[in-house]
Amino acid sequence: MSKLVGILLAAGKSSRFGSQKLLYPLSDNTPMILASAAKLVHVLPDSIVVINHTLSGLTRQLEKMGMRVVINEQAEKGMGCSIACGVRASDDASAWLIMLADMPYIKTETIGLLADTLKCGAKMVAPVLNQQRGHPVGFNQCFKHELLALNDDMGARQVLKKYQHALELVSITDEGVLIDVDQVSDVL
Predict the structure, then answer these.
(1) How far apart are CA 98 and CA 147, in angstroms?
(2) What is the domain range of residue 174?
(3) What CATH number is attached to the domain comprising 19?
């Protein structure tokens, strides 16, 4: 596999959180977005973070970490639009591993395992824990056109559902793949 790109989705509205949750400090005082970015870029040095204008003040810090910053001008359309934005910004990739910035508890080992599974030829990949599919999810280039066509808040769910026969589930023990921070009480 020639080029596997990580895409960190960070352009959401944080409506349930009450403030910009990606700036919220975790237990070590690292803002959530920076903790997630550090894990993804550690495993996949060729990574992109898709943000909205409210986070543009972090551009320099994210770039210093090694992330390429892409601003989604239509972030209000939702996660699918941000996925398409990230894929468009890396259209020479052979595969993408898509991670949500509000899931900072995913272990780097899990990211590495999923990346390796894509590198070994999986068409789609996702972690599974206790029979629940988690994040991040990966797609090889054969799904590029479907990913580029996304433009709503469903993310890539419809692609995963339509091609579920191609989805390779990787059993893991990392509870972080299921912990989505939507409220302050979700922060560990």
Answers:
(1) 11
(2) 4-186
(3) 3.90.550.10
Give 77-117 pLDDT, tens digit per residue. 989 999 999 999 998 999 999 999 999 999 999 999 999 99
Q: How far apart are CA 53 and CA 4, in angstroms?
A: 26
CA–CA gap between residue 47 and residue 38 (Å, rounded): 10
State how far the Cα of 61 lies from the Cα of 67, in Å rounded to an integer: 9
Element (H, E) at 96: strand 95-100
Report yes or no on whether pTM surpasses 0.70. Answer: yes
Amino acid (one-letter) located at 162: K
Return all residues near 118 (Cβ < 8 A) that are at least 6 apart: 1, 4, 95, 97, 125, 138, 140
Report, as an integer, the average pLDDT of 114-137. 97
Number of domains in the chain: 1
Cis check: omega of the bond before 136, within 30 degrees of 0: yes
